[in-house]
Structure formats: structure tokens, C-alpha cells
Design brief:
The chain is α+β, with helices and mostly antiparallel strands and 474 residues long. It is built from 16 helices and 19 strands. The radius of gyration is 26 Å and the shape is globular.
Length: 474
């Protein structure tokens, strides 16, 4: 079928054909040479160093067709998808590609769908496994991104030449803005939303640079001071050792709970860090019972202001967004629908607007969000804005306001690269909004928060400070 599979199958048949005679000789060997050679042979067949143009094209066309088949919102959010895919393939060099360039092409193809709910392989596949196996040596620096600039947060290198707060101009001669642009173009995200991708880059520039840009032995880091420092790429384990040596862990209170609820005067602060299925199962949390208990308590305590912190809530179980609605409705919405879902097979389901709860919260609501408020976390924030008249504080959320593809994923395996791509196959569509009639944008805050280097360094919670400032003025 394919060259890769054909050679592997031939080798397997050869082993089977030799049968017991080969096994007998094998067990009689004192040396491990045979096992080493066998491993090398299978390794070469499993993951070739170069992929021909024919192999790349086959994977590209296979993935393009799979996205068309399984993403039901594809042409709604990018009607020019086919034209863009043609331009993308034509832009790549007419030569064999290594596994990283091949992976970058496939990732960029996924990004053209204007949808962030893709899965791009895993840490065990042949593109990524070198990180976990300590074969890949990569950039040992943690960074912060502020107003489009990249600052050194922590230097994990052996050399320790960089200081916290150093602003980076270029890496190995590539301007930092070009690095950011390359990563934004190649990593799947919703519409024209940049905040989500910025968070991804901020949390993982080291491995993203390795996968999408280059795999150097050394990094020449140019700073705004005019100085350039060379640091050596190191493995994951070595970085871990350096972190433990350079930055001893501070004693920090670990919150082992599904959520936290605190009070300050007549204000309640509800922190919802995740709606993850495993997290809900770990703490045995049922969404309806969970909200019923919380809002009953808020009313008993005569709370007048509620702050809901959804920062870094990347979603999970949709019911933790949907079941919040009865408790925040400012008026009884009896005719409008809550949302619709449309499967890749065309099956539609409409969710009716729930009735207002007897424990509905009638005070002022303030919602804290950032670029990592995503998927069901974003949905909860959207409901709070649309139905609870909530004041939104922070950054544009990472998920498209009018709808997105998620729910479940279809896993397909690229014939030649061999990695799995997960394609979202349910379209979650919300009613048209008068509060925010945007297209391909996330939830936009009423009060935007812009972090500074000083606020990050001092660990100032600008979101929370703004919320209490607004409460004090009411």
C-alpha cells in the first residue's frame, strides 16, 4: 500500500518465514548485536528521516479531505479553505521534507480551518517522543509575552547568562516578531483570536520553536541591550535538574478541590479552574447539585456581588456551563434557544432555554477571563455575559463567540508521517447576539487588562484589583 508499510511487512514475513530456526539461533547468541540491528532496522522503517514529495502530498490530501469530512463548521468559519490549502501546499519547497517540516505543514493545514479544537499527535509519536526520551535538546528558557514582546522569565540553561526581565530581540538571527508570526500561523486557533495562541506560546516556546522553526545545538539570544548570548540546547531531564538547582520550590498552599468559594464583606469569589471530566469525577461533582448548593448559600449570606474567576479554564464537561444558566438569568428567557449542536453527519439538536431557578442570583456579577478561557470555560463566560448582564474583565477569550467545533473528535492517522490528528466533529452554535455581533472573535471584555512586566514580577492580580475597584464604585 505504502512504501513504509510494505518494507515493514516484508521484514515481518521474513522473520515469520525463518520460524523456529531463527529463534533457536537467536536464543543461542551471547551478544546483543542482533537486537541492536533489529531495533535500528525497525526504527528506520517506522520513522524515515525524509519524506518524498509524493508522501507529503498523500498525507496532505488525506488530511485535507478528513477535515472536510469531519469538521461540520469548516466552510462557515473559513469559506475559502480550499483556496487557502492550495496556496499553502504551493508555498512549501519542492524537495523531500524532514519529519518536523512535514509536521509543520500538517499543523498549518489544520490551522486553516480557523478552529482550535484539533489534536496534533501525542508525546509518544515519532515527531514528539524525543522530548520525553531525552533525545531532543531544546531551548532552556521560560518566557513571558507582554504587548507582543518576549521577556526572559527564567533561565534554565547551563550557562545562566540571561536575567529575568531581559527583552529578546532575536533568536539565532530570526526576529522575535517573525518567530511569533510563524507560530501563530502554524498552530490551530479559533478565527482571528490571538490571545489563545499567545498563551500557548508563552507556556511552551521552547518545544514549539523546536517543532516549528529549528532544532539547533546552540541558541544565540540577542537582547534589546545590544548584547548577544550563546546558550546550549539541553534535554528535558537536564532542564528539570537545573530548575531544581536554580529555583528551589517555594512552599505554596495547594488547593485540592474542584472549586473554591471565598467571601470578602458582601462579595463572593467563586474560582472555577477547570470543567475537566476527570477532575469532576475525582471530586464526585454533579453540575446541577454543585450550582444549587453554591447559589443557595450565596442567597442565604445575602451576597450582593459575585466574582467568578474563569481564567485558564480551558473547558471540559459542557454541562458545567449549561447548568449555570438557571442561576444567573436576569429575566426568564422562555422562547430563545440556549445553543444548537450539529454533528459531522448533519444531525442537529437544539437545547431549550432553562427556567430561572428559585435561587437565581440577583446581585452584580463580575467575570474574570483570559486567553486560556476556552471551550466550555468560554461558554460559561458567554452565558454570564448574555444572560447574567455580567461585567467581563480581562482579555479576549480563546474561543469564538458565535460558535465553535468541539464536543468529540475523529482520530485519523496520516499514512506516511504516522501520527494521529484529532479533528473536531460537532459544531456548537449559539443564538445571534446583540451584545456582541462579532465574527471570528472571542468574548471581548468590558474592561481590558494589560499586564506589565512589573505587575507580573510583583504577582499583582490586576483582574481582581479591577473587579473590586468596580464593586466599590457601585
Amino acid at each position: 500500500m505504502y512504501l513504509l508499510k510494505t518494507n515493514r511487512d516484508r521484514f515481518r514475513l521474513y522473520i515469520q518465514g525463518k520460524g523456529n530456526k531463527l529463534l533457536a539461533n537467536l536464543f543461542g547468541m551471547q551478544s546483543r548485536l542482533f537486537f541492536i540491528v533489529l531495533t535500528l532496522i525497525l526504527g528506520v522503517f517506522k520513522s524515515p528521516a525524509q519524506f518524498s514529495q509524493e508522501q507529503v502530498q498523500e498525507d496532505f490530501q488525506f488530511l485535507e479531505q478528513s477535515i472536510k469530512t469531519y469538521n461540520p463548521a469548516l466552510f462557515l468559519y473559513n469559506p475559502d479553505f480550499e483556496e487557502h490549502t492550495e496556496q499553502l501546499f504551493a508555498s512549501f519547497p519542492d524537495r523531500p521534507l524532514n519529519r518536523f517540516d512535514h509536521f509543520k505543514l500538517m499543523s498549518t493545514l489544520c490551522a486553516l480551518s480557523n478552529e482550535g479544537h484539533f489534536g496534533l499527535g501525542n508525546w509518544q509519536d515519532t515527531v514528539h517522543n524525543g522530548f520525553m526520551q531525552n533525545r531532543f535538546k531544546y531551548l532552556p528558557v521560560a518566557i513571558s509575552i507582554i504587548d507582543g514582546g518576549i521577556y526572559v522569565w527564567k533561565d534554565y540553561s547551563n550557562e545562566r547568562l540571561l536575567a529575568s526581565g531581559d527583552k529578546i530581540v532575536s533568536v539565532n538571527g530570526m526576529n522575535i516578531q517573525d518567530i511569533l508570526a510563524t507560530l501563530k500561523e502554524a498552530y490551530p486557533a479559533d478565527g482571528q483570536i490571538e490571545t489563545f495562541t499567545i498563551k500557548i506560546i508563552e507556556n511552551g516556546l521552547s518545544w514549539l520553536y523546536y517543532l516549528y522553526i529549528d532544532q539547533p545545538e546552540y541558541y544565540d539570544i540577542e537582547l534589546t541591550t545590544g548584547k548577544t548570548y550563546r546558550i546550549k540546547a539541553i534535554t528535558r531531564n537536564k532542564q528539570g535538574e537545573n530548575v531544581a538547582a536554580y529555583f528551589p520550590k517555594k512552599e505554596k498552599e495547594e488547593i485540592d478541590a474542584f472549586s473554591t468559594l471565598k467571601y470578602k464583606d458582601n462579595t463572593a469569589i467563586l474560582v472555577l479552574p477547570s470543567f475537566d471530566r476527570q477532575r469532576a469525577e475525582k471530586f464526585k461533582v454533579s453540575s446541577k447539585k454543585f450550582y444549587a448548593q453554591i447559589f443557595e448559600e450565596l442567597n442565604e449570606k445575602e451576597v450582593t456581588s459575585l466574582i467568578i474567576d474563569l481564567r485558564d479554564n480551558t473547558g471540559g464537561r459542557n454541562e458545567f456551563a449549561d447548568d449555570l444558566v438557571p442561576f444567573i438569568l436576569k429575566q426568564n428567557e422562555s422562547t430563545a434557544f440556549l445553543k444548537k449542536t450539529i454533528s459531522w453527519e448533519g444531525k442537529e439538536k437544539t437545547y431549550k432555554m432553562p427556567k430561572k431557578s428559585k435561587d437565581v442570583f440577583n446581585g452584580e456579577i463580575y467575570v474574570l477571563v483570559n486567553g486560556h478561557t476556552y471551550s466550555a470555560g468560554h461558554t460559561a463566560a458567554r452565558y454570564l455575559k448574555e444572560f447574567g448582564n455580567a461585567m467581563i474583565i480581562g482579555e479576549e477569550t480563546g474561543t469564538r463567540y458565535e460558535g465553535f467545533a468541539a464536543g468529540s473528535q475523529q482520530y485519523v492517522t496520516l499514512p506516511n508521517l504516522g501520527i494521529q490528528i484529532a479533528i473536531p466533529r460537532y459544531h456548537i452554535q449559539f443564538p445571534a447576539s446583540e451584545l456582541q455581533p462579532t465574527s471570528n472573535r472571542g468574548l471581548l471584555p468590558n474592561h481590558a487588562i494589560h499586564a506589565t512586566w512589573e505587575s507580573k514580577l510583583e504577582e499583582k492580580d490586576l483582574h481582581m484589583i479591577k473587579a473590586f475597584d468596580l464593586i466599590s464604585k457601585n
